[in-house]
TrEMBL record:
Gene3D superfamilies listed in its UniProt record: 3.60.21.10
Keyword Transport attached: yes
Name of the protein: Vacuolar protein sorting-associated protein 29
Compositionally biased region (Gly residues): 195-205
Calcineurin-like phosphoesterase domain: residues covered: 8-145
Length: 211
C-alpha cells in the first residue's frame, strides 16, 4: 500500500444484468487483485456472482443488501459498521432513507450507527459531503446504471463512478473515479477525524493510485 495507507475500494449499484451489461472495461482494468485491502459495497450486485468477483479483489469484503438483490443475498445485512484506521465506517444501501440521499436523513442514520463516515448508495450519484462534523460518502453506480432520479426534469445524466479511500490513521483521502466521454476523470477530497472536510482537484497525483 506504500505511503497511501490502507486502500479501500468503495462501489455499488451494479444492477447487472438487469440495467447494465458489465462494469466498464476501463474500470475493470484498474481494479486488479491485491491493490486494495478492503472492499465496501453498497449493494444491488443483484446476484452472488458479482460478490465472488469482489472477493477476488481484496481480503476484506463488506456488502450490504440493496433493494434489487436476489434471495441468494439474503444473508447480507441491511447495515454494517467496520473499523479501518481510526475510523468507524457505516455501510448501508440507502433505500431506507427518505428522501433518497437527503443529508439530514442520512445524518440521523449515521448517528444511530455511531460512525464517522457513512457510505450509502441508491441514488447512483457520487458525492463526498461534510455534514455536522462527520462525512457522508456515496460512490455512485460503477456501471452507470439507470436510476429514476435521472429521469427528473433538468437532471444530469448518471455517469459510471466508484471511489477509493486511502486511510492512514485519522487521515482519509477520497478519490472519485468517473467515466466521462470515454475517459476516466479523478477528483480528490481529504479530511481528518475531528476536523472539517477539505477538497481538492484531481489530476495525475490522484489517478496514479490505480492508473
Amino acid at each position: 500500500m506504500g505511503d497511501f495507507g490502507e486502500l479501500v475500494l468503495v462501489l455499488g449499484d451494479l444492477h447487472i444484468p438487469h440495467r447494465a451489461a458489465a462494469i466498464p472495461e476501463k474500470f475493470r482494468r484498474m481494479l486488479v487483485p491485491n491493490k486494495m485491502k478492503h472492499v465496501l459495497c453498497t449493494g444491488n450486485l443483484v446476484t452472488k456472482d458479482r460478490y465472488e468477483e469482489l472477493r477476488a479483489l481484496a481480503p476484506n469484503v463488506h456488502v450490504v443488501s440493496g433493494d434489487f438483490d436476489d434471495s441468494a443475498a439474503a444473508a447480507w445485512p441491511e447495515s454494517k459498521v467496520v473499523h479501518i484506521g481510526a475510523w468507524r465506517i457505516g455501510l448501508v444501501h440507502g433505500h431506507q432513507v427518505v428522501p433518497w440521499g437527503d443529508p439530514a436523513a442520512l445524518s440521523i442514520l449515521q448517528r444511530q450507527l455511531d460512525c464517522d463516515i457513512l457510505v450509502s448508495g441508491h441514488t447512483h450519484r457520487n458525492e463526498v459531503r461534510a455534514h455536522e462534523g462527520r462525512w457522508l460518502v456515496n460512490p455512485g453506480s460503477i456501471t452507470g446504471a439507470y436510476s429514476p432520479i435521472a429521469s427528473a426534469p433538468a437532471a444530469e445524466p448518471i455517469v459510471p463512478s466508484f471511489m477509493l479511500l486511502a486511510i492512514q490513521g485519522a487521515r482519509c483521502v477520497a478519490y472519485v473515479y468517473e467515466l466521462r466521454g470515454g475517459q476516466v476523470d479523478v477528483t480528490k477530497s481529504e479530511f481528518t477525524k475531528d476536523a472539517g472536510g477539505g477538497g481538492g482537484g484531481g489530476g495525475q497525483g490522484a489517478s496514479s493510485l490505480l492508473m
